[in-house]
Amino acid sequence: MAADTALPPIALTMGEPAGIGGEIALKAWLRRSESLPRFFLIDDPDRLAGLAGRLGLVVPLAEIASPAEAAGHFATALPVLRQTLAARVEPGRPDPINAAAVAAAIARAVAFAMAGEVAAVVTNPIHKQVMAEGGFGFPGHTEYLAHLTGHDGREVMMLAAPGLRVVPVTVHVGLLDAIGALDRATIVAAGRVSAAALKLDFAIAHPRLAVAGLNPHAGEGGAMGREEIDIIAPAVAELRTAGIDAFGPLPPDTLFHPEARAGYDAVLCMYHDQALIPLKTVDFHGGVNITLGLPIVRTSPDHGTAFEIAGSGRANEASLMAALRLAASIAANRLAH
């Protein structure tokens, strides 16, 4: 989509400062003419200036005091709203002492979005272990965003790339715990939020939801597990009773080839890797993480902090650019609605 100048700017958070978030933000701004919406970065401008110099990137920085100032600078400089870090950053070497600033940048972006000062929030990747060591009390971005917006328990994670959208019903828990946590109510809640978001955020009038099975061959009539019979099929029936075009459970190994993908708008997957492996296989650099069920628009690149290449100049900005574009598209759809 073309950049929508009628929308407020997008707030981009710093993410883990020792990761690749700063690099991909700088590189994305250099490609702003490629239909990127206007954005500003909540980060430490001194760190960014040093990083740009290290990478040989000519990116003028404009320190701003409020989101409203971003539009006047974006064409000629990357607008930065200062979030001072507690310790000097060395790429690839995270320091938990900076976790508080990382969390504060997210909280500020959400506050701007709740106040209507920004069109959307795009978050650069954080490192969950480092954040936990620094005192962060949430499993990840999704849960923190739900807490900040007062929508705890109603958040749903969607991953999207051109031609495929997936929703993991259970997310950041171990596989055994994910199977134990799977129940009818959780599947139904994820399906309801997903169907509503496909209508509102993606402007799909009559969304179709495919529902994956948990076991090989979707349990094969109970021969390989009863979760499909006892949990997933009743959830699908409840969704259909609610007027949602959901179908399944379907064998996961036949859900993601091109012909199958043409038959639905999103897939409800039963656990994290069942959703993310096909998405990242289909489009590793174009995937976007979206939080559904919130009163604000939030997207993120679908990759991690990549400490192993941080500061090397090798980070790929494509997923961040996709996240920025999709955030603007969703914001525009909500505005039109």
Write up what this structure looks like.
- This protein has 337 residues and is α/β, with parallel strands linked by helices.
- It has eleven helices and twelve strands.
- It has helices at residues 21-30, 45-55, 99-114, 128-133, 141-149, 175-181, 184-200, 227-241, 258-261, 272-282, 318-336; strands at residues 10-13, 39-43, 61-64, 78-82, 120-123, 156-161, 164-168, 208-212, 245-250, 266-269, 288-292, 298-301.
- Strands 3-4-2-1-5-12-11-6-7-10-8-9 form a twelve-stranded mixed sheet, sandwiched between helices.
- Helix 7 (184-200) packs across helix 8 (227-241).
Secondary-structure map:
Elements: E1 10-13, H1 21-30, E2 39-43, H2 45-55, E3 61-64, E4 78-82, H3 99-114, E5 120-123, H4 128-133, H5 141-149, E6 156-161, E7 164-168, H6 175-181, H7 184-200, E8 208-212, H8 227-241, E9 245-250, H9 258-261, E10 266-269, H10 272-282, E11 288-292, E12 298-301, H11 318-336
Parallel strand pairs: 1-2, 1-5, 2-4, 3-4, 5-12, 7-10, 8-9, 8-10
Antiparallel strand pairs: 6-7, 6-11, 11-12
Task: Pick out its properties.
337 residues; alpha/beta; Isopropylmalate Dehydrogenase; 2 domains; 12-stranded mixed β-sheet; 12 strands; 17% strand; globular
- What is the CATH architecture assignment of the largest domain? 3-Layer(aba) Sandwich
Sheet having the most strands = 12 strands, mixed
Total count of domains:
2
Question: What is the tally of beta strands?
Answer: 12
Broad CATH class of the largest domain = Alpha Beta
In CATH, the homologous superfamily of the largest domain goes by the name: Isopropylmalate Dehydrogenase
| Principal-axis shape | globular
Class by alpha and beta content: alpha/beta
CATH fold description of the largest domain: Isopropylmalate Dehydrogenase
Distance between the termini: 17 Å
Radius of gyration: 20 Å
- Give the low-confidence spans: none
Helix content: 25-40%
Mean pLDDT: 95
Beta fraction: 15-25%
